[in-house]
Amino acid sequence: MHRTSSVLEISAHVVIPMEQIELTAVRAQSAGGQSVNKNSSAIHLRFDIPASSLPSQYKERLLGRSDQRITREGVLIIKAQEHRTQERNRAAALLRLQALVRAVAVVPKKRIATKPTAGARRRRLEAKGRRGTIKALRRSTAE
Question: What is the DSSP letter of 70?
């Protein structure tokens, strides 16, 4: 993913300026090998949600999530280390941030409580009665 723009696009109306996203190269955690402890190919992405330019509803929904990647101060930390190159890990981290913010952009529908129909209640009670009768017959023959 080659990006020449200085913003991360979330939707047609919402963007995150790259200045608000802190990307740091760190050493990836992996099994030992020739290049272990030499290459800093993993990426730590830090995004301060309260200080960001996101709309307030996005911020509220992000901070309201029970996500272990969000600190008490409201900083989102994403570590990308699945690829061998720093650039691909950087792209993966940005994609994860984009997906997370897009997920909170969708307002969940309010659940409308429903009641069982009169017929469903009647059928349930009849089935319970039949089952009780079977158990009662079983009880009387066992004694």
Answer: B
